[in-house]
């Protein structure tokens, strides 16, 4: 039983921060604004529906001037970039940040407690959302 507990604890502290060289170079070229590794995210899907589901997972986040990337060792869990066409908004609730994406029954939420100033994180993510909406309208 103790071995199972250690395995569960070990998986919660796994490093999720690694990106491949190409991903790292692309994000660096865009100007990394904020970055945090190995955060606990609450990922919810189909929010507001009877079959809503959620789970907690450890992932990393990078915010540039053009992109918001939530990933696990380069595997993209969530991405906002200039070509994003779906509805995305961000909210701050005290020290938590919530990124809502999608409309109606096809929605997802990524909620996390960033290191440092949650208001600064929310504003940096809003700037990316505004940029993606501007690109969509041009």
Written description of the protein model:
The chain is 30% helix and 42% strand. With 138 residues, the protein is an alpha+beta fold. The protein has one domain: Pleckstrin-homology domain (PH domain)/Phosphotyrosine-binding domain (PTB) (PH-domain like), CATH 2.30.29.30. A 7-stranded antiparallel β-sheet has the order 4-3-2-1-7-6-5, with helices on one face. It is globular, with a radius of gyration of 16 Å. The termini are far apart.
Strand tally, please? 7
Series of H and E elements: HHEEEEEEEH
> What is the highest CATH level, the class?
Mainly Beta
Number of domains: 1
Which structural class should the secondary elements be placed in? alpha+beta
Largest sheet, spatial ordering of strands: 4-3-2-1-7-6-5
Name the CATH homologous superfamily.
Pleckstrin-homology domain (PH domain)/Phosphotyrosine-binding domain (PTB)
As for the CATH topology, it is: PH-domain like
Work out the strand percent. Answer: 35-45%
Helix content: 25-40%
Uncertain runs are 1-11
Topology (elements, then pairings):
Blueprint: H1 2-12, H2 21-30, E1 32-45, E2 53-64, E3 68-72, E4 75-80, E5 88-93, E6 96-103, E7 106-112, H3 118-137
Antiparallel strand pairs: 1-2, 1-7, 2-3, 3-4, 5-6, 6-7
What's this, in brief?
This protein is of the alpha+beta class and 138 residues long. It is built from 3 helices and 7 strands. The longest helix has 20 residues, at 118-137.
